[in-house]
Design brief:
Blueprint lengths: L1 H16 L14 H36 L7 E4 L2 E4 L9 H8 L6 E5 L4 H5 L6 E5 L2 E2 L3 H14 L4 E8 L2 E8 L1 E4 L2 E5 L7 E3 L3 E5 H6 L3 H16 L2 H25 L7 H12 L2 H18 L7 H11 L3 H4 L7 H20 L14
Parallel strand pairs: 9-11
Antiparallel strand pairs: 1-8, 2-3, 4-5, 4-6, 6-7, 10-11
Helix pairs in contact: 2-3, 2-7, 7-10, 8-9, 10-13, 11-13
């Protein structure tokens, strides 16, 4: 009975929909072939832009990770090349990757970081990786993963890379450099103006990428997130959440013993309060340390405050008067101005550019 009733309801609905108003002009329509051709062009354009954006992010991140590795708690050896193989490319972009990058089953270089060891050694975009230190690189996804694993496991900075270029086998000697051990991830499908760190990675959204006026502003964003990682803010926040949760749980437990069922209210409250503990302080510290990172990498930090002013405007000026997890914009501006003067004084005095750390902290 219910099925029959549902059937009649749907029929009635379709009858009403049949009376919906539509366009009355005779619009132009493309053929299947024309639409397919245009789809191909747009897909290739999208991939081309994504490659360009990624290349810029990697180039800007490199000096920050290289020139500040002394201050990073974790380091890694960096070759300076990014590779791919057709098997790991998303199905939407496979055809475009073939056409634009001539990508196939071999692990192939698609990006050489500017001034990196790989670029200086003479490697080129399009080179196919045949072997490393005498180990033959397999084809496809397995070869891509094999290369990444080998580069991570080889502890010697000196490596021999064998490549195939224009049907000719060539061997290059590369001396890798130590950089901060954090990966840079660009999120092209995230329109929100945002950047964040998780203790191991630095994430830049497309929205933030577009919001940054120039290279120095984009470098500032990455330096700020790098500081969150190096100063271990994420680990500290996790600890604070655990402490807050433990304190709240104790209250829940005591009230439960008194016959009051809190439903974990104080555990949740403690976790939230723990998450917010020192949030403003962490952001202030990231601002402070980031300016040192910029100057150490040879990037002018004099215009940093202007960026945060624009961010305040983008956030409907809420950050001008209200503290949340970040300092207010006026607080931020004054602190940044004073930090810049501090750095300039150290440079003029020939001092080593390192953030001032409290003497009680190891």
């Amino acid at each position: 009975m219910i099925k029959l009733y549902t059937k009649y309801c749907l029929i009635a609905l379709f009858c009403f929909l049949a009376g919906c108003q539509g366009p009355i002009t005779v619009t132009q329509q493309g053929t299947k072939e024309e639409i397919a051709s245009e789809r191909k062009k747009q897909t290739e354009s999208s991939l081309r832009q994504e490659i360009k954006d990624l290349a810029r992010v990697y180039d800007l991140a490199y000096p920050l990770l290289l020139d500040n590795q002394e201050l990073c708690p974790s380091k890694k050896l960096f070759t300076g090349m990014y590779t791919s193989t057709l098997e790991i490319v998303h199905k939407v972009y496979k055809e475009a990757a073939k056409n634009l990058m001539n990508l196939g089953n071999e692990t192939q270089i698609w990006k050489l970081v500017k001034n990196s060891a790989a670029e200086k050694a003479g490697l080129m975009i399009g080179d196919k990786i045949v072997g490393i230190n005498g180990v033959k690189i397999r084809k496809g996804k397995n070869g891509f993963n094999q290369l990444a694993k080998l580069l991570e496991e080889i502890t010697d900075a000196n490596i021999q890379i064998k490549i195939l270029r224009n049907n000719e086998n060539l061997t290059f000697h590369i001396v890798r450099e130590k950089i901060c051990n954090y990966n840079i991830a660009y999120l092209p499908n995230e329109p929100a103006i945002n950047a964040y760190a998780d203790g191991q990675n630095i994430y830049i959204t497309r929205g933030m990428y577009r919001f940054a006026d120039d290279d120095s502003e984009l470098s500032l964003v990455m330096a700020h997130e790098l500081a969150h990682n190096t100063m271990k803010h994420i680990d500290k926040k996790k600890t604070n959440v655990l402490l807050g949760t433990a304190g709240g749980f104790l209250i829940d437990l005591l009230l439960s013993g008194a016959g009051v069922n809190t439903g974990g209210t104080y555990s949740d409250l403690g976790a939230n309060l723990g998450a917010q503990a020192y949030s403003v302080g962490f952001e202030q510290e990231a601002d402070y340390v980031a300016m040192y990172y910029l100057e150490r990498a040879g990037i002018d930090s004099s215009n940093v405050a202007h960026f945060w002013r624009r961010m305040a405007t983008e956030n409907n000026n809420l950050s001008i008067n209200h503290r949340t997890s970040h300092p207010t914009t006026p607080e931020r501006f004054i602190a940044l101005e004073k930090t810049f003067k501090e750095i300039m004084m150290k440079k003029n005095n020939g001092e080593v550019l390192k953030p001032n750390i409290e003497s009680s902290v190891d």
